[in-house]
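Example for tutorial group B:
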């Protein structure tokens, strides 16, 4: 019975966020134009706001308008690193059903079949980077436990082991846009014998236009499925993963 409950919970815990949104990370182009040329292989320009990897050497995607040297830095397999007048930046596939954000339009590339969203004039100014990942985790945990205590529920305890799983999950979600993939492939087949007593996962992706890192978290707390996960799942410990880049933020919670 518990095994079935675990499977149902991990499927229910997904909080689908907002993919289509307005950009935050900004890299100035060489001029005011908006065209896109060949897929880039040159030096990166500009900066990107991102949650730290918390000891994990892997990196998440740079995101729309972020600096890049190759397309695999930008997002999923359909998002291209483009070059315009010698500068490179990440575009986004405009044929995924999301369309382009405001102030962006869809163009064809010289050497790819993928049509990409690029800025009408220039990429926006970089957002203020978030604090250290440990500080983001402490803030998120305090918000989670404040909501639980308000309902007379016991607070969740932090777990460094679960933090690592959650961070890997957030990065995997950011790279692939496939929710719960780490939990499904690594824990679900062997539950209840998962690492760190891992028993369920919750993930959410949000657009964070004109929001800093805490604003992105605030938006995640408006997602009913995400909130229900940390309020209603019978857990004692939680790990927190966080990645922010381009115009999106990804949050993962690992429960035990």
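The residue assignment follows.
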């Amino acid at each position: 019975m518990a095994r079935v409950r675990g499977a149902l919970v991990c499927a229910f815990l997904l909080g689908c966020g907002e993919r289509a949104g307005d950009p935050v990370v900004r890299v100035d182009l060489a001029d005011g134009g908006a065209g896109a040329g060949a897929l880039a292989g040159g030096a990166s320009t500009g900066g990107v706001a991102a949650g730290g990897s918390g000891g994990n050497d892997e990196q998440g995607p740079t995101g729309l308008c972020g600096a890049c040297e190759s397309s695999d830095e930008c997002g999923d397999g359909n998002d291209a690193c483009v070059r315009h007048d010698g500068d490179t930046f990440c575009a986004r596939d405009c044929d995924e059903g999301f369309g382009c954000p405001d102030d962006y339009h869809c163009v064809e590339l010289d050497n790819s079949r993928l049509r990409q969203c690029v800025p009408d004039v220039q990429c926006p100014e970089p957002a203020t980077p978030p604090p250290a990942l440990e500080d983001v985790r402490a803030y998120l945990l305090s918000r989670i436990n404040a909501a639980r205590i308000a309902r007379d529920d016991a607070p969740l305890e932090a777990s460094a082991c679960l933090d690592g799983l959650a961070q890997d999950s957030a990065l995997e979600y950011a790279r692939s846009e496939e929710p719960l993939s780490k939990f499904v492939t690594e824990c679900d087949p062997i539950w209840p014998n998962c690492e760190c007593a891992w028993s369920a996962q919750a993930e959410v992706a949000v657009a964070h236009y004109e929001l800093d890192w805490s604003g992105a978290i605030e938006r995640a707390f408006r997602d009913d499925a995400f909130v229900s996960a940390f309020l209603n799942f019978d857990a004692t410990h939680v790990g927190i993963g966080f990645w922010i880049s381009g115009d999106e933020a990804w949050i993962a919670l690992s429960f035990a």
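The radius of gyration is 19 Å. Compare this with the pattern of hydrophobic and polar residues in the output above.
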